[in-house]
Amino acid sequence: MATRVIAIEDMKTGEITEAVYEHPFVVRLCHWLNAISLFVMVGSGFQIFHAFPSFGAKIPQKDLLNWPKAFALGGWLGGALQWHLTFMWIYLATGLVYVGYQVLSGNYK
Amino acid sequence: MKPRTDSRKFKTISRRELLKLTPVLALGAFAIPRLQKPLLKAGLGFSDWASARLFRSGHLAPTFADTDLTPFEKFPINDYDVDDPGVDFDKWTLTVTGSVQKPGDYTLAQIQALPKVTQNTRHVCVEGWDVIGNFGGVRLSDFLKTIGADPTARFVTVECADDYYESLDMATAMHPQSLLCYEMYGQPLTREHGAPLRLSIPTKIGYKQAKYLTDLKVSHVIQKAGYWEDQGYSEFYGL
């Protein structure tokens, strides 16, 4: 697998160091899209979870999972579902492209 | 001071930065308030479209034994405003309009004359809870045949006595388990469960199970998808 070598210049000393991309662009792209969509799904997942009325008398919902409101995404159940169902496809697509690329390019070797 | 970086190196570095930022920039569009709403709407629209493509008419929702039923008293009553919109049963009819050969007012007796179906199916709420209920009624597909609904129409919409409204895609409306329901647990519907007639669509989410039906329309185009859908919920929401 060919790796791309780039030169990075230190702004102060002017020293040139060589850096190598360990992972091809497709892999890095999928990784970041996947990572972002995962966080979106977790955030909107919190909001969706919050809509559940109760886990019953044995486990009042307030005792189960108290996450800071700042991490919840979507504002209400409907909004959270929009985020969740949109990024679900991005998450799925990047996962499939990633696996497809690894298999077809032989990069996984 | 002369810049130390020659253009060739600068080019490499800036491209590196750009490549790194590409995915963040693409998804960053979701962070722009003006773009966020249409993007999420498109995302949900795509999700609905894909769900509709995956819908199989012959694929049945799970059915359950009588022993699995949620007791009638524990079957939740959910409304968006009132439990009982005060339907006058003596005067009640289902008003049929739209792309049908036989529009008009249909009485409960006319609807009940169609073959009766009872089934134990799961009722799933968007909030995350679900119950198993016993529902009795007539197949919506039988009723659509009775009124001579245009098979090429795309939607069946209903309006309710409490001003709730809903829509179904035609494939779901024609599904063999989709019912115009007038009985629950072998008894006529109670007022809070939607008497005299409600929808029971086991392949759909709870907010699609409209109660206290008053109007049914067959359409090629719809302006409003449903009370909750018009506030941002999924229009298809298959299970």
Can you describe what's shown?
The complex is a heterodimer of chains A (109) and B (239). Chain A is elongated and about 60 Å long. Chain A has one domain (24-105). In chain A, a hairpin with a 6-residue loop joins strand 1 (5-9) and strand 2 (16-20). Helix content of chain A is 55%, strand content 9%. Chain A is mainly α. Chain A has a two-stranded antiparallel sheet. With 239 residues, chain B is α+β, with helices and mostly antiparallel strands. Chain B has one domain (61-231): Sulfite Oxidase, Chain A, domain 2, CATH 3.90.420.10. In chain B, strands 2-1-10-5-6 form a five-stranded mixed sheet. In chain B, a hairpin with a 5-residue loop joins strand 1 (94-98) and strand 2 (104-106). Chain B is globular, with a radius of gyration of 24 Å. Classes of the chains: A mainly alpha (109), B alpha+beta (239). At the A-B interface, strand 1, helix 1 and helix 3 of A face helix 1 and helix 2 of B.
